[in-house]
Design a protein that fits this description.
heterodimer, A: 89 residues, alpha+beta, 5-stranded mixed β-sheet, two-stranded antiparallel sheet, 4 helices, B: 151 residues, Aldehyde Oxidoreductase, domain 3, 5-stranded antiparallel β-sheet, 4-stranded mixed β-sheet, 3 helices, globular
């Protein structure tokens, strides 16, 4: 992978059922630009993995241990975590 | 995955131990003790369950479990509330979650335990994948997380 390719890539962490729908616990996404909004990243992921689209609509997003809004701009090196509906207990 | 739970005191892959929580929580001024335990049951939605595999987004789940303990004390008036959740593959009858609340009188202990388990179900990033006896599996669709859990 060239430097420019690696610069335009973000790794998304897929939890719960999204691990199955996206094919693994991590999904590497090529992006046209960074920073990128959570909403745009999710839309690009849904376009690549259409089976996950409905679940992505119900999914919260986190950076670190806090939920972030869909308007939040993701910076280079940040890792978005996808949190589908929870079912602990 | 070995260090996924490093630094987590409220999430464990080991069996939950009620005796440890009773010891940790005891106090001489308490007249009430409420315990809630969640266990893996054999049937769900008409299917025969063989096991449940619990997973979590650990950093967030650990923080939420700590917050829930504090919320249960602050909102319900209990003296102490402890919550522990198990991860990994659990068999029928295994304890998946334990809540221990103590207070001077019973109302506060009951309320704190109830508050804590409801909060666990609604706001902690933990997922259960049911493994069925026919070889299939499915994730249980629970509650959507919202930004109110943005601490």
């Amino acid at each position: 992978m060239t430097e420019s390719q690696s610069d335009s890539t973000m790794v998304v962490e897929c939890c719960g059922v999204l691990e199955e729908l996206c094919g693994g616990p991590e999904y590497r996404l090529r992006l046209p630009h960074i920073p990128i909004s959570v909403a745009e990243l999710i839309e690009r992921l849904a376009a690549e993995q259409p089976a996950a689209r409905d679940m992505l609509d119900r999914t919260a997003c986190a950076v670190g241990d806090h939920i972030v809004s869909r308007e939040r701009l993701l910076q280079r090196g940040e890792r978005l975590v996808l949190l589908p509906p929870v079912s602990g207990g | 995955m070995a260090d996924e739970l490093a630094g987590c005191s409220h999430l464990t892959r080991a069996p939950l131990d009620l005796a440890v929580l009773l010891e940790l929580s005891q106090g001489p001024e308490d007249g009430a003790l409420a315990v809630f335990g969640g266990t893996v049951r054999r049937h769900n939605d008409g299917k025969q369950v063989r096991a449940i595999d619990y997973s979590a987004y650990a950093p967030f789940a650990e923080r939420r479990l700590q917050e829930i303990e504090a919320e249960a004390v602050a909102r319900c008036g209990a003296r102490i509330c402890l919550v522990r959740h198990r991860l990994g593959e659990l068999s029928i009858g295994d304890l998946s979650v334990l809540v221990v609340a103590r207070s001077e009188h019973r109302a506060e202990a009951f309320a704190a335990a109830r508050h804590a388990i409801e909060a666990v179900k609604h706001s902690v990033p933990i997922w259960k994948r049911e493994e069925y006896s026919d070889g299939t599996h499915a994730y249980v669709m629970g509650c959507e997380l919202h930004e109110e859990h943005h601490g």
